[in-house]
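Order emerges. For instance:

***
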Amino acid sequence: MKHQKMDIFETINQEVPKALQELYQIEINPSSLVISPTKKEFEGDYTIVTFPFVKLAKKSPDKIAEELGNYLIQNVNYFESFNVIKGFLNITISDQYWLNFIEDIIQNKNFGKGKKNNKKALVEFSSPNTNKPLHLGHIRNILLGWATSKILETAGYDVIKTQIVNDRGIAICKSMLAWKKYGDNATPQLADLKSDHFVGHWYVQFEQHFKKEYAQWQTSDEAKNILNDKNVKEDNIFDFFKKYKNTYFNEYSLLGKEAKEMLLKWEANDKETKDLWKKMNSWVYEGFEETYKNLGVNFDTLYYESDTYLLGKNIIENGLKNNTFYPKEDGSIWIDLEDAKLDHKLVLRSDGTSVYMTQDIGTANLRYKNHQTEKMIYVVADEQDYHFKALFAILKKLGEPYAEGCHHLSYGMVNLPTGKMKSREGTVVDADDLMELVIQEATATTQEIGSIADLTQEEQNIIFKQIGLAALKFYIIKVNPKKSMIFNPDESLDLQGQTGPFILYAAVRVKSAVRKAGDKYDLSQSKNYSHIQESEKEVCRLLYQYPETIQQAAIDYDPSHVANYAYNLAKAYNKFWASGLSMLNAESEAAGAFRLKMSQATLQVLSSAMDILGIEIPTRM
Protein backbone atom coordinates (compact mmCIF):
# COMPACT_ATOMS: atom_id res chain seq x y z
CA MET A 1 0.00 0.00 0.00
CA LYS A 2 1.55 3.32 -1.05
CA HIS A 3 1.57 6.25 1.34
CA GLN A 4 1.90 9.97 0.64
CA LYS A 5 4.64 12.23 1.94
CA MET A 6 5.39 15.65 0.51
CA ASP A 7 8.93 16.23 1.87
CA ILE A 8 11.32 14.35 -0.40
CA PHE A 9 14.39 14.39 1.85
CA GLU A 10 12.36 13.50 4.92
CA THR A 11 10.75 10.65 3.01
CA ILE A 12 14.10 9.28 1.83
CA ASN A 13 15.56 9.61 5.34
CA GLN A 14 12.65 7.64 6.76
CA GLU A 15 12.15 5.02 4.05
CA VAL A 16 15.73 4.02 3.20
CA PRO A 17 16.50 2.84 6.78
CA LYS A 18 13.21 0.89 6.72
CA ALA A 19 14.18 -0.69 3.40
CA LEU A 20 17.66 -1.65 4.62
CA GLN A 21 16.15 -3.21 7.73
CA GLU A 22 13.64 -5.21 5.73
CA LEU A 23 15.96 -6.18 2.88
CA TYR A 24 19.19 -6.85 4.78
CA GLN A 25 18.32 -6.68 8.50
CA ILE A 26 20.77 -3.82 9.03
CA GLU A 27 20.28 -0.58 10.94
CA ILE A 28 21.67 2.81 9.94
CA ASN A 29 21.43 6.33 11.27
CA PRO A 30 19.39 8.45 8.78
CA SER A 31 21.95 11.24 9.20
CA SER A 32 24.54 9.01 7.50
CA LEU A 33 22.59 8.96 4.24
CA VAL A 34 24.13 10.82 1.31
CA ILE A 35 21.38 12.40 -0.80
CA SER A 36 21.80 15.03 -3.50
CA PRO A 37 20.06 16.35 -6.62
CA THR A 38 20.85 14.08 -9.58
CA LYS A 39 23.56 15.40 -11.88
CA LYS A 40 22.19 16.94 -15.04
CA GLU A 41 23.81 14.36 -17.31
CA PHE A 42 21.79 11.54 -15.73
CA GLU A 43 18.08 10.79 -15.64
CA GLY A 44 16.41 11.35 -12.27
CA ASP A 45 15.69 13.96 -9.66
CA TYR A 46 17.51 12.80 -6.51
CA THR A 47 20.46 10.47 -6.01
CA ILE A 48 21.14 8.09 -3.11
CA VAL A 49 24.69 6.82 -2.58
CA THR A 50 24.74 3.07 -1.74
CA PHE A 51 28.48 2.46 -1.15
CA PRO A 52 28.25 2.92 2.67
CA PHE A 53 25.94 -0.15 2.85
CA VAL A 54 28.18 -2.62 0.96
CA LYS A 55 29.97 -4.20 3.94
CA LEU A 56 26.79 -4.43 6.03
CA ALA A 57 24.59 -5.87 3.25
CA LYS A 58 27.41 -8.00 1.77
CA LYS A 59 26.27 -7.15 -1.74
CA SER A 60 27.61 -5.02 -4.59
CA PRO A 61 26.64 -1.32 -4.77
CA ASP A 62 24.70 -1.92 -8.00
CA LYS A 63 22.74 -4.80 -6.49
CA ILE A 64 21.88 -2.79 -3.38
CA ALA A 65 20.80 0.16 -5.55
CA GLU A 66 18.60 -2.11 -7.68
CA GLU A 67 16.87 -3.74 -4.69
CA LEU A 68 16.56 -0.47 -2.80
CA GLY A 69 15.08 1.24 -5.87
CA ASN A 70 12.45 -1.46 -6.29
CA TYR A 71 11.50 -1.23 -2.61
CA LEU A 72 11.10 2.55 -2.73
CA ILE A 73 9.01 2.51 -5.93
CA GLN A 74 6.67 -0.09 -4.43
CA ASN A 75 6.30 1.62 -1.05
CA VAL A 76 6.60 5.37 -1.55
CA ASN A 77 3.99 7.46 -3.28
CA TYR A 78 5.38 9.92 -5.87
CA PHE A 79 8.56 7.87 -6.44
CA GLU A 80 7.88 6.99 -10.06
CA SER A 81 10.97 5.24 -11.42
CA PHE A 82 14.69 4.74 -10.85
CA ASN A 83 17.94 3.90 -12.57
CA VAL A 84 21.31 2.72 -11.30
CA ILE A 85 24.64 4.19 -12.41
CA LYS A 86 27.70 2.54 -10.82
CA GLY A 87 26.20 2.21 -7.35
CA PHE A 88 24.32 5.51 -7.44
CA LEU A 89 20.53 5.16 -7.19
CA ASN A 90 18.76 7.90 -9.16
CA ILE A 91 15.11 8.38 -8.20
CA THR A 92 12.59 10.10 -10.47
CA ILE A 93 9.75 11.97 -8.78
CA SER A 94 6.31 11.73 -10.40
CA ASP A 95 4.74 14.63 -12.28
CA GLN A 96 1.84 14.57 -9.82
CA TYR A 97 4.21 15.42 -7.00
CA TRP A 98 5.47 18.53 -8.79
CA LEU A 99 1.91 19.57 -9.74
CA ASN A 100 0.90 19.38 -6.07
CA PHE A 101 4.11 21.06 -4.96
CA ILE A 102 3.61 24.12 -7.20
CA GLU A 103 0.04 24.37 -5.94
CA ASP A 104 1.35 24.31 -2.36
CA ILE A 105 3.66 27.27 -3.04
CA ILE A 106 0.85 29.29 -4.60
CA GLN A 107 -1.35 28.61 -1.58
CA ASN A 108 1.43 29.33 0.94
CA LYS A 109 2.63 32.93 0.76
CA ASN A 110 5.13 32.12 3.54
CA PHE A 111 6.83 29.37 1.55
CA GLY A 112 10.47 29.20 2.63
CA LYS A 113 9.86 30.59 6.10
CA GLY A 114 10.66 28.37 9.06
CA LYS A 115 8.38 27.95 12.03
CA LYS A 116 8.94 30.37 14.89
CA ASN A 117 11.47 28.75 17.22
CA ASN A 118 10.95 31.14 20.16
CA LYS A 119 14.64 32.02 20.11
CA LYS A 120 16.22 35.46 19.88
CA ALA A 121 19.26 36.40 17.83
CA LEU A 122 20.99 39.76 17.97
CA VAL A 123 23.03 40.78 14.92
CA GLU A 124 25.55 43.59 15.27
CA PHE A 125 26.68 45.20 12.03
CA SER A 126 28.03 48.45 10.61
CA SER A 127 29.32 49.71 14.00
CA PRO A 128 31.24 52.68 12.57
CA ASN A 129 33.63 55.13 14.19
CA THR A 130 32.40 58.70 14.41
CA ASN A 131 35.57 60.17 12.92
CA LYS A 132 34.82 59.37 9.29
CA PRO A 133 32.01 58.50 6.84
CA LEU A 134 30.96 54.98 5.94
CA HIS A 135 33.10 53.44 3.20
CA LEU A 136 33.27 50.41 0.89
CA GLY A 137 34.33 48.12 3.74
CA HIS A 138 31.30 49.24 5.75
CA ILE A 139 29.07 48.44 2.77
CA ARG A 140 30.17 44.79 2.78
CA ASN A 141 29.67 44.70 6.56
CA ILE A 142 26.21 46.28 6.37
CA LEU A 143 25.00 44.08 3.52
CA LEU A 144 26.19 40.90 5.26
CA GLY A 145 24.64 41.99 8.54
CA TRP A 146 21.33 42.98 7.01
CA ALA A 147 21.02 39.80 4.94
CA THR A 148 22.03 37.62 7.89
CA SER A 149 19.37 39.31 10.01
CA LYS A 150 16.73 38.64 7.36
CA ILE A 151 17.88 35.03 6.92
CA LEU A 152 17.66 34.31 10.66
CA GLU A 153 14.25 35.97 10.79
CA THR A 154 13.05 33.88 7.84
CA ALA A 155 14.47 30.76 9.50
CA GLY A 156 12.30 31.37 12.59
CA TYR A 157 14.27 33.58 14.97
CA ASP A 158 13.17 36.81 16.60
CA VAL A 159 15.95 39.12 15.42
CA ILE A 160 17.30 42.35 16.87
CA LYS A 161 19.38 44.42 14.43
CA THR A 162 21.87 46.59 16.28
CA GLN A 163 25.15 48.42 16.08
CA ILE A 164 27.70 49.68 18.56
CA VAL A 165 28.65 53.23 17.62
CA ASN A 166 32.33 53.72 18.38
CA ASP A 167 31.84 57.31 19.43
CA ARG A 168 34.85 57.80 21.71
CA GLY A 169 38.55 57.03 21.78
CA ILE A 170 41.80 58.28 20.33
CA ALA A 171 40.67 58.17 16.68
CA ILE A 172 37.69 60.40 17.44
CA CYS A 173 39.97 62.77 19.37
CA LYS A 174 42.24 63.06 16.33
CA SER A 175 39.43 64.48 14.16
CA MET A 176 38.27 66.72 17.03
CA LEU A 177 41.79 68.05 17.62
CA ALA A 178 42.38 68.73 13.90
CA TRP A 179 39.11 70.69 13.65
CA LYS A 180 39.98 72.64 16.80
CA LYS A 181 43.50 73.51 15.62
CA TYR A 182 42.93 74.05 11.90
CA GLY A 183 39.18 74.31 11.33
CA ASP A 184 38.60 77.99 12.03
CA ASN A 185 35.02 77.22 13.21
CA ALA A 186 34.05 75.71 9.86
CA THR A 187 30.76 73.77 9.57
CA PRO A 188 29.47 71.24 7.01
CA GLN A 189 27.13 73.92 5.67
CA LEU A 190 29.93 76.46 5.20
CA ALA A 191 32.16 73.84 3.60
CA ASP A 192 29.24 72.55 1.45
CA LEU A 193 30.05 68.96 2.44
CA LYS A 194 27.86 66.08 3.62
CA SER A 195 28.23 66.26 7.38
CA ASP A 196 30.00 62.91 7.98
CA HIS A 197 32.36 63.61 5.07
CA PHE A 198 33.16 66.93 6.71
CA VAL A 199 34.24 65.24 9.95
CA GLY A 200 36.22 62.65 7.99
CA HIS A 201 38.11 65.51 6.31
CA TRP A 202 39.51 66.54 9.69
CA TYR A 203 40.59 63.00 10.49
CA VAL A 204 42.61 63.03 7.26
CA GLN A 205 43.96 66.48 8.15
CA PHE A 206 45.26 65.20 11.48
CA GLU A 207 47.10 62.38 9.72
CA GLN A 208 48.64 64.76 7.20
CA HIS A 209 49.88 67.13 9.92
CA PHE A 210 51.13 64.18 11.98
CA LYS A 211 53.08 62.73 9.02
CA LYS A 212 54.70 66.13 8.47
CA GLU A 213 55.62 66.35 12.16
CA TYR A 214 57.00 62.81 12.12
CA ALA A 215 59.09 63.46 9.01
CA GLN A 216 60.65 66.54 10.64
CA TRP A 217 61.33 64.67 13.88
CA GLN A 218 63.19 61.92 12.01
CA THR A 219 66.00 64.44 11.32
CA SER A 220 66.21 65.56 14.96
CA ASP A 221 69.00 64.72 17.40
CA GLU A 222 66.49 62.78 19.49
CA ALA A 223 65.69 60.49 16.54
CA LYS A 224 69.39 60.08 15.67
CA ASN A 225 70.16 59.02 19.25
CA ILE A 226 67.41 56.37 19.04
CA LEU A 227 68.85 55.05 15.77
CA ASN A 228 72.32 54.83 17.38
CA ASP A 229 70.99 53.16 20.53
CA LYS A 230 69.17 50.54 18.48
CA ASN A 231 72.13 50.17 16.07
CA VAL A 232 69.98 50.78 12.99
CA LYS A 233 71.99 50.60 9.78
CA GLU A 234 71.57 53.29 7.15
CA ASP A 235 69.86 51.02 4.60
CA ASN A 236 67.26 50.00 7.25
CA ILE A 237 66.35 53.48 8.47
CA PHE A 238 63.23 53.80 6.28
CA ASP A 239 61.81 50.46 7.45
CA PHE A 240 62.67 51.28 11.06
CA PHE A 241 60.76 54.56 11.04
CA LYS A 242 57.81 52.91 9.27
CA LYS A 243 57.52 50.43 12.14
CA TYR A 244 58.34 53.02 14.81
CA LYS A 245 55.39 55.26 13.94
CA ASN A 246 53.10 54.13 16.81
CA THR A 247 55.90 54.42 19.36
CA TYR A 248 56.60 57.94 18.14
CA PHE A 249 52.93 58.86 18.44
CA ASN A 250 52.72 57.57 22.01
CA GLU A 251 56.08 58.82 23.34
CA TYR A 252 57.38 61.79 21.35
CA SER A 253 54.70 63.37 19.14
CA LEU A 254 53.32 66.75 20.23
CA LEU A 255 50.12 66.09 18.27
CA GLY A 256 49.91 62.64 19.84
CA LYS A 257 50.30 64.18 23.28
CA GLU A 258 47.50 66.67 22.60
CA ALA A 259 45.19 63.92 21.28
CA LYS A 260 45.81 61.73 24.34
CA GLU A 261 45.26 64.70 26.65
CA MET A 262 41.96 65.36 24.89
CA LEU A 263 40.92 61.73 25.50
CA LEU A 264 41.74 62.07 29.20
CA LYS A 265 39.75 65.31 29.36
CA TRP A 266 36.82 63.56 27.69
CA GLU A 267 36.89 60.76 30.26
CA ALA A 268 37.10 63.40 33.00
CA ASN A 269 33.93 65.04 31.56
CA ASP A 270 35.65 68.31 30.66
CA LYS A 271 32.79 70.52 29.43
CA GLU A 272 34.58 72.13 26.47
CA THR A 273 35.82 68.76 25.23
CA LYS A 274 32.43 67.10 25.65
CA ASP A 275 30.63 69.97 23.88
CA LEU A 276 32.97 69.70 20.88
CA TRP A 277 32.51 65.91 20.89
CA LYS A 278 28.72 66.21 20.89
CA LYS A 279 28.76 68.75 18.06
CA MET A 280 31.04 66.75 15.76
CA ASN A 281 29.25 63.46 16.52
CA SER A 282 25.89 65.05 15.69
CA TRP A 283 27.30 65.96 12.27
CA VAL A 284 28.41 62.37 11.72
CA TYR A 285 25.09 60.85 12.83
CA GLU A 286 23.18 63.07 10.42
CA GLY A 287 25.38 61.81 7.57
CA PHE A 288 25.15 58.18 8.65
CA GLU A 289 21.35 58.28 8.68
CA GLU A 290 21.26 59.57 5.11
CA THR A 291 23.60 56.78 3.96
CA TYR A 292 21.61 54.07 5.76
CA LYS A 293 18.38 55.36 4.24
CA ASN A 294 19.85 55.29 0.72
CA LEU A 295 21.18 51.78 1.30
CA GLY A 296 17.77 50.66 2.59
CA VAL A 297 18.79 49.47 6.07
CA ASN A 298 17.76 50.31 9.62
CA PHE A 299 18.42 49.22 13.19
CA ASP A 300 16.18 48.18 16.07
CA THR A 301 18.54 49.34 18.80
CA LEU A 302 21.71 51.41 19.08
CA TYR A 303 24.51 51.12 21.62
CA TYR A 304 27.21 53.72 22.17
CA GLU A 305 30.75 53.03 23.31
CA SER A 306 30.59 56.17 25.44
CA ASP A 307 27.94 54.41 27.54
CA THR A 308 29.14 50.83 27.57
CA TYR A 309 32.88 51.24 28.29
CA LEU A 310 32.07 52.20 31.89
CA LEU A 311 30.05 48.99 32.29
CA GLY A 312 33.08 47.07 31.09
CA LYS A 313 35.27 48.85 33.65
CA ASN A 314 32.89 47.84 36.44
CA ILE A 315 32.91 44.19 35.32
CA ILE A 316 36.72 44.21 35.22
CA GLU A 317 36.92 45.76 38.71
CA ASN A 318 34.65 43.02 40.05
CA GLY A 319 36.69 40.41 38.21
CA LEU A 320 39.86 41.64 39.93
CA LYS A 321 38.33 40.63 43.28
CA ASN A 322 37.96 36.98 42.26
CA ASN A 323 41.26 36.92 40.30
CA THR A 324 39.64 36.58 36.85
CA PHE A 325 41.79 39.61 35.93
CA TYR A 326 45.15 40.66 37.34
CA PRO A 327 47.13 43.93 37.56
CA LYS A 328 50.66 44.51 36.30
CA GLU A 329 53.23 46.73 38.01
CA ASP A 330 52.42 49.68 35.75
CA GLY A 331 48.76 49.58 36.85
CA SER A 332 47.38 48.05 33.62
CA ILE A 333 44.83 45.21 33.94
CA TRP A 334 45.17 41.90 32.07
CA ILE A 335 43.60 38.45 31.78
CA ASP A 336 45.36 35.11 31.22
CA LEU A 337 43.78 33.27 28.25
CA GLU A 338 46.44 30.61 27.77
CA ASP A 339 43.98 27.86 28.70
CA ALA A 340 41.94 28.95 25.65
CA LYS A 341 45.14 28.64 23.55
CA LEU A 342 45.46 32.43 23.41
CA ASP A 343 47.83 34.70 25.32
CA HIS A 344 47.50 37.38 28.00
CA LYS A 345 45.10 40.16 26.98
CA LEU A 346 45.08 43.82 28.05
CA VAL A 347 41.66 45.01 29.26
CA LEU A 348 42.54 48.38 30.87
CA ARG A 349 45.50 50.68 30.20
CA SER A 350 47.86 51.79 32.95
CA ASP A 351 46.33 55.29 32.95
CA GLY A 352 42.90 53.76 33.58
CA THR A 353 41.55 54.40 30.08
CA SER A 354 39.67 51.61 28.36
CA VAL A 355 40.49 49.60 25.24
CA TYR A 356 38.07 48.07 22.74
CA MET A 357 37.88 44.92 24.85
CA THR A 358 36.65 46.95 27.84
CA GLN A 359 33.76 48.31 25.83
CA ASP A 360 32.89 44.97 24.21
CA ILE A 361 32.66 43.21 27.59
CA GLY A 362 30.26 45.88 28.84
CA THR A 363 28.24 45.95 25.64
CA ALA A 364 27.70 42.18 25.56
CA ASN A 365 26.58 42.22 29.19
CA LEU A 366 24.13 45.07 28.61
CA ARG A 367 22.66 43.49 25.47
CA TYR A 368 21.94 40.26 27.27
CA LYS A 369 20.23 42.11 30.10
CA ASN A 370 18.16 44.05 27.56
CA HIS A 371 17.18 41.23 25.20
CA GLN A 372 17.98 37.80 26.73
CA THR A 373 19.22 36.56 23.35
CA GLU A 374 20.38 33.01 22.67
CA LYS A 375 22.67 34.21 19.90
CA MET A 376 24.88 37.29 19.44
CA ILE A 377 26.37 37.58 15.96
CA TYR A 378 29.15 40.11 15.44
CA VAL A 379 29.69 41.10 11.79
CA VAL A 380 33.29 42.34 11.80
CA ALA A 381 36.19 42.02 9.33
CA ASP A 382 38.63 39.13 9.69
CA GLU A 383 41.41 41.43 10.87
CA GLN A 384 39.61 41.24 14.24
CA ASP A 385 39.53 37.41 14.41
CA TYR A 386 41.87 37.30 17.40
CA HIS A 387 39.95 40.02 19.22
CA PHE A 388 36.71 38.07 19.10
CA LYS A 389 38.35 34.79 20.09
CA ALA A 390 39.67 36.64 23.12
CA LEU A 391 36.34 38.35 23.85
CA PHE A 392 34.38 35.08 23.77
CA ALA A 393 37.02 33.39 25.94
CA ILE A 394 36.77 36.23 28.48
CA LEU A 395 32.97 36.00 28.55
CA LYS A 396 33.25 32.27 29.24
CA LYS A 397 35.72 32.90 32.08
CA LEU A 398 33.27 35.42 33.52
CA GLY A 399 30.60 32.71 33.45
CA GLU A 400 28.25 34.70 31.22
CA PRO A 401 25.21 32.55 30.25
CA TYR A 402 25.22 33.87 26.67
CA ALA A 403 28.92 33.21 25.97
CA GLU A 404 28.33 29.95 24.06
CA GLY A 405 25.87 31.69 21.73
CA CYS A 406 28.37 34.33 20.57
CA HIS A 407 29.57 34.09 16.96
CA HIS A 408 31.97 36.21 14.94
CA LEU A 409 30.77 36.49 11.33
CA SER A 410 34.24 37.14 10.00
CA TYR A 411 34.58 38.49 6.48
CA GLY A 412 37.44 39.29 4.13
CA MET A 413 38.39 42.73 2.96
CA VAL A 414 36.81 44.30 -0.09
CA ASN A 415 38.69 46.60 -2.44
CA LEU A 416 38.32 48.17 -5.84
CA PRO A 417 40.40 47.15 -8.87
CA THR A 418 42.62 50.15 -8.11
CA GLY A 419 43.85 48.60 -4.85
CA LYS A 420 43.64 48.94 -1.07
CA MET A 421 42.08 51.88 0.73
CA LYS A 422 43.29 53.78 3.81
CA SER A 423 40.96 56.08 5.74
CA ARG A 424 43.72 58.09 7.39
CA GLU A 425 45.29 58.93 4.03
CA GLY A 426 42.00 59.88 2.41
CA THR A 427 42.23 57.15 -0.23
CA VAL A 428 39.13 55.34 1.01
CA VAL A 429 36.09 55.02 -1.27
CA ASP A 430 33.11 56.49 0.57
CA ALA A 431 29.89 54.48 0.59
CA ASP A 432 27.93 57.47 -0.74
CA ASP A 433 30.28 57.93 -3.68
CA LEU A 434 30.17 54.24 -4.54
CA MET A 435 26.36 54.13 -4.48
CA GLU A 436 26.26 57.22 -6.68
CA LEU A 437 28.71 55.59 -9.10
CA VAL A 438 26.73 52.36 -9.59
CA ILE A 439 23.47 54.30 -9.95
CA GLN A 440 25.08 56.52 -12.60
CA GLU A 441 26.37 53.45 -14.44
CA ALA A 442 22.95 51.79 -14.23
CA THR A 443 21.36 54.99 -15.55
CA ALA A 444 23.69 55.16 -18.54
CA THR A 445 23.25 51.46 -19.38
CA THR A 446 19.45 51.53 -19.09
CA GLN A 447 19.12 54.76 -21.07
CA GLU A 448 21.22 53.23 -23.84
CA ILE A 449 18.82 50.28 -24.06
CA GLY A 450 15.88 52.69 -24.03
CA SER A 451 13.37 50.18 -22.65
CA ILE A 452 11.83 52.54 -20.08
CA ALA A 453 12.02 55.79 -22.04
CA ASP A 454 8.21 56.07 -22.01
CA LEU A 455 8.12 56.42 -18.19
CA THR A 456 8.27 59.73 -16.35
CA GLN A 457 11.69 60.92 -15.19
CA GLU A 458 10.72 60.26 -11.58
CA GLU A 459 9.71 56.67 -12.42
CA GLN A 460 12.93 56.17 -14.38
CA ASN A 461 15.06 57.48 -11.51
CA ILE A 462 13.50 54.96 -9.11
CA ILE A 463 14.35 52.11 -11.50
CA PHE A 464 17.89 53.41 -12.08
CA LYS A 465 18.46 53.35 -8.31
CA GLN A 466 16.94 49.87 -7.95
CA ILE A 467 19.19 48.47 -10.69
CA GLY A 468 22.33 50.21 -9.39
CA LEU A 469 21.85 49.10 -5.79
CA ALA A 470 20.95 45.55 -6.92
CA ALA A 471 24.25 45.45 -8.82
CA LEU A 472 26.21 46.65 -5.80
CA LYS A 473 24.46 44.47 -3.20
CA PHE A 474 24.36 41.22 -5.16
CA TYR A 475 27.97 41.42 -6.35
CA ILE A 476 29.17 41.74 -2.76
CA ILE A 477 26.77 39.28 -1.10
CA LYS A 478 27.27 36.47 -3.64
CA VAL A 479 30.85 35.99 -2.40
CA ASN A 480 31.39 33.74 0.62
CA PRO A 481 32.01 36.14 3.54
CA LYS A 482 35.33 34.53 4.45
CA LYS A 483 36.83 35.40 1.06
CA SER A 484 38.45 38.73 0.29
CA MET A 485 37.10 40.28 -2.87
CA ILE A 486 37.41 43.04 -5.43
CA PHE A 487 34.27 44.97 -6.28
CA ASN A 488 34.22 45.70 -10.01
CA PRO A 489 31.42 48.21 -10.82
CA ASP A 490 31.40 47.33 -14.53
CA GLU A 491 31.08 43.58 -13.94
CA SER A 492 28.36 44.11 -11.33
CA LEU A 493 26.01 45.57 -13.96
CA ASP A 494 26.48 42.89 -16.63
CA LEU A 495 23.04 41.66 -17.74
CA GLN A 496 24.56 38.36 -18.92
CA GLY A 497 26.67 37.55 -15.86
CA GLN A 498 26.08 36.32 -12.32
CA THR A 499 24.77 39.69 -11.25
CA GLY A 500 21.89 41.43 -9.55
CA PRO A 501 20.63 43.02 -12.79
CA PHE A 502 20.54 39.55 -14.42
CA ILE A 503 18.20 38.32 -11.69
CA LEU A 504 16.13 41.51 -11.82
CA TYR A 505 15.72 41.10 -15.56
CA ALA A 506 14.52 37.51 -15.08
CA ALA A 507 12.11 38.57 -12.33
CA VAL A 508 10.73 41.42 -14.42
CA ARG A 509 10.29 38.99 -17.32
CA VAL A 510 8.33 36.62 -15.06
CA LYS A 511 6.27 39.50 -13.69
CA SER A 512 5.48 40.72 -17.21
CA ALA A 513 4.55 37.23 -18.42
CA VAL A 514 2.25 36.61 -15.44
CA ARG A 515 0.60 39.98 -16.01
CA LYS A 516 0.08 39.29 -19.72
CA ALA A 517 -1.36 35.84 -19.03
CA GLY A 518 -3.95 37.41 -16.73
CA ASP A 519 -7.13 35.32 -16.78
CA LYS A 520 -6.14 33.47 -19.97
CA TYR A 521 -6.24 30.03 -18.30
CA ASP A 522 -8.42 28.19 -15.86
CA LEU A 523 -5.75 27.49 -13.23
CA SER A 524 -7.62 24.47 -11.89
CA GLN A 525 -6.77 22.72 -15.18
CA SER A 526 -3.09 22.53 -14.21
CA LYS A 527 -3.84 19.21 -12.47
CA ASN A 528 -4.41 17.68 -15.91
CA TYR A 529 -0.94 18.52 -17.21
CA SER A 530 0.33 15.05 -18.07
CA HIS A 531 4.03 15.37 -18.85
CA ILE A 532 6.25 17.97 -17.17
CA GLN A 533 9.24 18.80 -19.38
CA GLU A 534 12.84 18.76 -18.13
CA SER A 535 13.28 22.56 -18.19
CA GLU A 536 10.08 22.87 -16.12
CA LYS A 537 11.29 20.19 -13.70
CA GLU A 538 14.56 22.03 -13.24
CA VAL A 539 12.63 25.11 -12.08
CA CYS A 540 10.48 22.95 -9.78
CA ARG A 541 13.52 21.25 -8.23
CA LEU A 542 15.12 24.61 -7.50
CA LEU A 543 11.92 25.95 -5.97
CA TYR A 544 11.89 22.89 -3.75
CA GLN A 545 15.39 23.76 -2.46
CA TYR A 546 14.41 27.22 -1.20
CA PRO A 547 13.43 26.37 2.42
CA GLU A 548 16.52 24.19 2.82
CA THR A 549 18.70 26.99 1.39
CA ILE A 550 17.35 29.43 3.99
CA GLN A 551 17.96 27.01 6.86
CA GLN A 552 21.51 26.22 5.69
CA ALA A 553 22.29 29.93 5.26
CA ALA A 554 21.09 30.48 8.84
CA ILE A 555 23.28 27.65 10.15
CA ASP A 556 26.34 28.91 8.25
CA TYR A 557 25.62 32.64 8.71
CA ASP A 558 26.29 32.88 4.98
CA PRO A 559 24.03 35.07 2.78
CA SER A 560 25.93 33.95 -0.34
CA HIS A 561 23.83 30.75 -0.22
CA VAL A 562 20.69 32.81 -0.86
CA ALA A 563 22.33 35.03 -3.48
CA ASN A 564 23.64 32.11 -5.51
CA TYR A 565 20.34 30.28 -5.13
CA ALA A 566 18.47 33.28 -6.57
CA TYR A 567 20.87 33.38 -9.51
CA ASN A 568 20.42 29.66 -10.22
CA LEU A 569 16.63 29.96 -10.06
CA ALA A 570 16.64 32.96 -12.42
CA LYS A 571 18.95 31.09 -14.79
CA ALA A 572 16.70 28.00 -14.73
CA TYR A 573 13.62 30.08 -15.48
CA ASN A 574 15.42 31.79 -18.38
CA LYS A 575 16.34 28.35 -19.71
CA PHE A 576 12.68 27.28 -19.52
CA TRP A 577 11.65 30.50 -21.26
CA ALA A 578 14.13 29.87 -24.08
CA SER A 579 13.17 26.19 -24.44
CA GLY A 580 10.19 26.92 -26.68
CA LEU A 581 7.62 25.85 -24.05
CA SER A 582 5.26 28.79 -24.37
CA MET A 583 3.17 29.99 -21.46
CA LEU A 584 1.15 32.60 -23.32
CA ASN A 585 0.47 30.31 -26.30
CA ALA A 586 0.62 26.90 -24.67
CA GLU A 587 -0.29 23.71 -26.49
CA SER A 588 -3.13 23.04 -24.04
CA GLU A 589 -5.15 24.65 -21.28
CA ALA A 590 -3.49 22.34 -18.75
CA ALA A 591 0.05 23.20 -19.91
CA GLY A 592 -0.66 26.94 -19.88
CA ALA A 593 -2.25 26.78 -16.42
CA PHE A 594 0.70 24.84 -14.98
CA ARG A 595 3.29 27.17 -16.53
CA LEU A 596 1.42 30.20 -15.24
CA LYS A 597 1.36 28.71 -11.73
CA MET A 598 5.05 27.78 -11.98
CA SER A 599 5.83 31.33 -13.07
CA GLN A 600 3.85 32.77 -10.16
CA ALA A 601 5.72 30.48 -7.76
CA THR A 602 9.05 31.51 -9.29
CA LEU A 603 8.21 35.20 -8.92
CA GLN A 604 7.11 34.62 -5.33
CA VAL A 605 10.36 32.86 -4.38
CA LEU A 606 12.63 35.24 -6.30
CA SER A 607 10.92 38.20 -4.62
CA SER A 608 11.41 36.58 -1.21
CA ALA A 609 15.08 35.77 -1.82
CA MET A 610 15.88 39.23 -3.17
CA ASP A 611 14.05 40.88 -0.29
CA ILE A 612 16.33 38.97 2.10
CA LEU A 613 19.29 40.47 0.25
CA GLY A 614 17.77 43.95 0.50
CA ILE A 615 17.12 44.16 -3.24
CA GLU A 616 13.94 45.61 -4.76
CA ILE A 617 12.54 44.21 -8.01
CA PRO A 618 11.52 46.99 -10.44
CA THR A 619 8.24 47.07 -12.33
CA ARG A 620 10.13 47.52 -15.62
CA MET A 621 13.67 47.24 -16.96
Q: What stands out?
A: The domain at 8-93 is CATH 3.30.1360.70 (Gyrase A; domain 2). Confidence is low (pLDDT under 50) at residues 1-5, 421-426. Residues 107 and 330 are 69 Å apart (CA to CA).
